[in-house]
Amino acid sequence: MDYSHDRNYKHLLSYRKIFQEVIEHYIEGEWKQELDLEKAEKMDKSFILQDFAERESDIIYRVLLNKKRKKSICTSLSNTNLV
User: Fold this and answer.
1) Domain containing 59: what range?
2) Residue 80 belongs to a domain
3) Taking Cα atoms as reference points, which of 38, 36, 78, 72 lies closest to residue 58?
């Protein structure tokens, strides 16, 4: 299966400005107004869970919520085919 489009989306979302535009234009909800997307920081995408299983996200950004608490936003790209 060709996953080149997943790689392309991952590449695009690795740019903070593109990530910011996706959140602003395609994600619904009042909560996004509380995010400081101008200061979003890209984080290490590999992490270990409590059961010591290793996981990897496509992209993780850390953003300020209400100008004080840091929250992480994980992106997950998946290939979905409709039959």
Assistant:
1) 4-75
2) no
3) 78
Q: What are phi and psi of 2, to 5 degrees?
A: -85, 120
Asked whether residue 83 is domain-assigned, the answer is: no
Query: Where do the H-state alpha helices sit in the chain?
Result: 4-13, 16-26
- Do residues 35 and 53 lie in contact, with contact meaning Cβ atoms separated by under 8 Å? no
Answer whether 11's CB lies under 8 Å from 3's CB.
no
Tokens of 7: 């790689």
Supply 55's token pair.
């996981």
In a domain, 46, yes or no: yes
Q: What is the tally of structural domains in the chain?
A: 1
pTM for the structure as a whole: 0.66
Question: pLDDT tens-digit profile of 1-18?
Answer: 556 667 788 888 889 999
